[in-house]
Amino acid sequence: MTLAHVHILLNHFPTIGMIVGMGLYILSLLWKSDDVKRASLAVIFGISAVAIATFVSGSAALQEIAMLPGVSKAAASAHLDAAVLAFALMEITGMVAWLSLWQFRRIGRITKGLQAAVLVFGLITLGAMSNAATIGGEIRHPEILTAADTAAEHGAGPARGIINGEELGKFVVGQPWMWPTCETLHFVGLSLLLGVVLAVDLRMLGFMKSVPFSTLHRLMPWAILGFGINTLTGMLFFIGAAEQYTTNGTFQWKIVLILLAAANGLYFTVIDETWVLGSDDEAPMTAKVMAASAMFLWVAVLFCGSMLPFLGNAF
Fold this sequence. Notes:
Helix content is 77%, strand content 0%. It is mostly helical. The relative contact order is 0.11.
């Protein structure tokens, strides 16, 4: 099985998942139900994590089918543009959804500003994902191409999206300052993320017991900021040299570990048992296991990222 097969398994999740997530979110606003609202936000955050694997596998799939007969080159280029935009919007929406869950924990409600932000970004993302999915379907289905698409195939040139994925990739690798800048920002984001995550996990394991969990969790937005910086810079790395990553098994393991670590982070935001821990309270065994696994997962992510030039065939 190749990453193209993985993409076939995953490519409907971002669109259908956002339909489910936004449907639940709108219902929660109409019903004024905090439980449904929290469930919808968790779905949206989960879909934003799955979108990472979908985007990576989609780039690998495009590489595999690009030269096959019957493949719409115009649709392939347009799909890349649409996917880059949709993926960026999806990650922003996922971060806003997580911040809403965090705020609900901090003050017992979600402010109107964040509620509106989730609604606006969610609907825009849903539209962008639907557009990317539609264009993706046209790549191997010429019978659904429009007249404009057919004209593009015969020399009129494909209609480019708001973001030109191919030109963006050339910019990332073509400017001598761009890659080092992204590397620096990637390290800063990783420091923010790991610093906060390790502090929270060590508290669960019995260190710093005099500090209530709710106090440490106040730092978590810094961790999500670090994750966002890493996602953005990682996306630029990937767009700039996708073929270096998609053929590297170590990178594939890194993506899997990131998805597991994201699920772990969601656990500490939505599960009640950790939030009742006060000063000198011992964490339950489940929380300790999740904390230990989080430390392992993020260290493993760091290891895989550092070993890309040595374990695999990249760079």
